Amino acid sequence: MTYSELRKKEVINMRDCRKLGRICDLELDECTGKIHKIMVPGCNKWLSLMNCEDSISICYKDIRQIGPEIILVDI
């Protein structure tokens, strides 16, 4: 799977069924080249004036399933 395919998928939290958004960035382990974390925008540009996080970091171990259209995470 390529990064461009991965970032088109909607990230959904399994605990509360909340849509978190789409992947905007990845953090890779320099030594192994494996994905360490995925980043999802914390809020949209209109809400950025309020108190929002820049992005949500999700550890790779918290990803439960990657499907054809969504990524399920448990955070």
How would you describe this protein?
- This protein has 75 residues and is mainly β.
- The protein has one domain (3-73): PRC-barrel domain (SH3 type barrels, Roll).
- 5% of the residues lie in helices and 43% in strands.
- The protein contains 1 helix and 7 strands, in the order H-E-E-E-E-E-E-E.
- The strands form 2 sheets. It has a 4-stranded mixed β-sheet with strand order 2-1-7-6, with no helix packed on it.
- It starts with a helix and ends with a strand.
Secondary-structure blueprint:
Layout: H1 3-6, E1 10-13, E2 19-22, E3 25-28, E4 35-41, E5 55-59, E6 63-66, E7 70-73
Parallel strand pairs: 1-7
Antiparallel strand pairs: 1-2, 3-4, 4-5, 6-7
Q: Over all CA atoms, what is the radius of gyration?
A: 13 Å
Physical arrangement of strands within the biggest beta sheet: 2-1-7-6
Q: Do you know the CATH architecture?
A: Roll
Profile the largest sheet.
4 strands, mixed
What are the low-pLDDT stretches, counting only 5+ consecutive residues below 50?
Answer: none
Overall 3D shape: globular
Summed up, what is this model?
With 75 residues, this protein is mainly β. The protein has one helix and seven strands, in the order αβββββββ.
Which features does this protein show?
mainly beta; 75 residues
